């Protein structure tokens, strides 16, 4: 035999694929799932790499299938599961009992309550030693334990009473919830400002890791004629030149749907990169918006007076 035999489709089933351009046969299932089941550790099977083009070696097709525990069978089952509607995530989730869903919500809400408290109080989350033998595992874990001691409903589904993968206390979970809270707070601030004018207060400093951080505060008058100041965010900047700071302000403004044309006031310290007459941050913004009047930060003025 000098060419591919189409009858092999009937003999070997859906896994066999023939490439006219390469004049070779391949295993579809192993091609899709080989990295999950071992070819990456032991070299690549010819049915995944160059394909089989020696039409006299039909026995290699049978050898490739192998026994029950072969890599091909594992890949075949993975493909079968992919096509099985009962394996889809929405189906699996719908099969979870209402009790399990309720337990998950209680556990998650417990972690959210602890995180909201720490954020409101401006307290750090992590501890120096968070092992089970530690006398103090950090504010977050200690607060979760305190909540469990005072709330039986939370205690029944949290920490040691929760599945290992659903404790809702991992550092990544803490960060995810914190980012969601920050997003909701920022959205509320921007909504409160609406289409009104506002002022910006900006200062930059180097943190303990020697990275330059720029803090941005918004000052505006709300619908009740109250003067409001809200912290918008902390932005890492590559350098402290006026152009770099302005670019960062533009990026965070665009991200939150704000326009620099709405700025009616700027408040910075007296450093040349901030308040310089020609190349300072205040001048760069004034060049685009001549209504963004600059006011030297009163706190920095008091420091200069000492």
From TrEMBL:
SMART domains: ZnF_TTF
Domain annotation TTF-type: ranges: 2-91
Xref: InterPro entries: DUF4371 (IPR025398), Znf_TTF (IPR006580)
Family matches, as PANTHER family: OS05G0311600 PROTEIN, PTHR45749
Name recorded for this polypeptide: TTF-type domain-containing protein
Pfam families: DUF4371 (PF14291)
Organism: Acacia crassicarpa
Domain of life: Eukaryota
């Amino acid at each position: 035999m000098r060419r591919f035999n189409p009858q092999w489709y009937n003999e070997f089933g859906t896994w066999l694929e023939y490439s006219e351009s390469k004049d070779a046969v391949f295993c579809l299932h192993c091609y899709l799932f080989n990295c999950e089941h071992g070819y990456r550790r032991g070299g690549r099977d010819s049915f995944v790499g160059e394909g089989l083009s020696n039409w006299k070696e039909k026995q290699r097709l049978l050898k490739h299938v192998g026994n029950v525990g072969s890599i091909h069978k594992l890949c075949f089952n993975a493909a079968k599961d992919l096509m099985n509607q009962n394996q889809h995530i929405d189906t699996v989730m719908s099969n979870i009992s209402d009790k399990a869903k309720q337990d998950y919500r209680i556990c998650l809400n417990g972690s959210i309550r602890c995180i909201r408290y720490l954020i409101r109080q401006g307290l750090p989350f992590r501890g120096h030693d968070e092992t089970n033998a530690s006398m103090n595992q950090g504010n977050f874990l200690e607060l979760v334990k305190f909540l469990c001691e005072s709330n039986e409903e939370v205690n029944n589904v949290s920490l040691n009473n929760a599945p290992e993968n659903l404790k809702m206390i991992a550092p990544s979970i803490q960060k995810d919830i914190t980012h969601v809270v920050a997003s909701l707070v920022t959205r509320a601030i921007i909504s409160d400002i609406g289409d009104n004018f506002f002022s910006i207060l900006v200062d930059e400093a180097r943190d303990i890791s020697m990275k330059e951080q720029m803090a941005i505060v918004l000052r505006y008058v709300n619908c009740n004629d109250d003067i409001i100041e809200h912290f918008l965010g902390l932005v890492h900047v590559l350098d402290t030149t006026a152009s770099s700071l302005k670019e960062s302000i533009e990026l965070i403004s665009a991200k939150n749907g704000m326009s620099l044309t709405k700025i009616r006031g700027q408040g910075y310290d007296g450093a040349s990169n901030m308040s310089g007459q020609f190349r300072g941050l205040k001048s760069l913004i004034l060049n685009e918006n001549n209504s963004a009047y600059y006011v030297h930060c009163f706190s920095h003025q008091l420091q200069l007076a000492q």
